[in-house]
Amino acid sequence: MDSTAQLLWGVVFGAIGLGFFVYGKKQKAIVPLMVGIALFIFPYFISDLYVLVIVGVGLVVLPYFVRI
């Protein structure tokens, strides 16, 4: 991680991912469960701050549009 902002955004998306993961596990809903796991992992692989925020916000809103 190059900057403090990337670290903080990674923590924010990780915390949101934990919420999605717990919700998906309790409700046996696959989309929030997988989005939660993705939100845990993706900050490690993206080094650009703007791309990190865009991908994170996209993953956060994904369960609202995809219902399985």
Poorly predicted spans: none
Structural class determined from secondary elements: mainly alpha
**What's the alpha carbon Rg, rounded to whole Å?**
12 Å
Number of helices: 3
Bin the strand percentage: under 5%
Layout of helices and strands, plus pairs?
Elements: H1 4-27, H2 30-41, H3 49-65
Q: Keyphrases for this structure?
A:
single chain; 68 residues; mainly alpha; 3 helices; elongated
Please describe what this structure looks like.
The chain is an all-alpha fold and 68 residues long. It has one domain. It is built from three helices and no strands. Helix 1 packs antiparallel against helix 2, helix 1 runs parallel beside helix 3 and helix 2 runs antiparallel to helix 3. The model has no long low-confidence stretch (mean pLDDT 93).
Quick description:
The protein has 68 residues and is mainly α.
